Amino acid sequence: MSGSDKAKVAVVAGGGSGIGRGCALRLAGMGYHVVLVGRDASKLDKTAAEVSAAGGSAMAFPADVRDFDRLGELRALVEQTGVDLLINSAGGQFAAPSAELSRSGWQSVVDVNLSGSFFLCRQLQPALAKRRGAIVLIVANMWRRPAPNLAHSAAARAGVVNLMNTLALEWAPEGIRVNAVAPGLTDTPALLDQYRALAEKVPLKRIGTVDEVVDAILFMGLSAYITGEVLSIDGGLHLT
Fold first, then answer.
1. CB of 88 within 8 A of CB of 179?
2. Residue (of 174, 88, 83) closest to 124 by Cα position
């Protein structure tokens, strides 16, 4: 792996766009060597090029977070240096009434959000333990409430929160902290127009920015005495 063995190392899943890209650029600017993980190699390469142009260090590692064996190759890549911070912003969903949701539709969303989170954490645990690193899992804020037409996604995100709590307890003796952040409406390319119209329902009456979400992710990732917590970044929408 490129980068000095003494440099801090961050692995960012979903690092090719949106919130993951924002985290990668910020961390590279802070001196981290960033390993970008995602399915779209061209997006990863673009982010890596942006990091390089700004004087930072990054590499692309194309992988689907649902592929346990491919993530084993990632584990081998970072096992010598260790990992200081793992951020998982890889995820996906689509809207469908529960009565019309197919088995494959259910499974695909649960796999990418819940199984993908576990596979990343499981494979990188030794590298995180080596540096007493931290994990931040990103979950949509629907995890805490009913989500009509998104039952598969909401159930998966709630599962990620329970997984986070469990890993926080299991891995605390090794110095690994595990937290989650729950963004609400955020101005990324993935935010559909129909959801932008919901900004009026947000108590702060606006959509959040990627930088605001990144601020919260890095706070949770770098605060040395916080573990097993979920931080909502949704302008107060969870209160309504």
1. no
2. 83
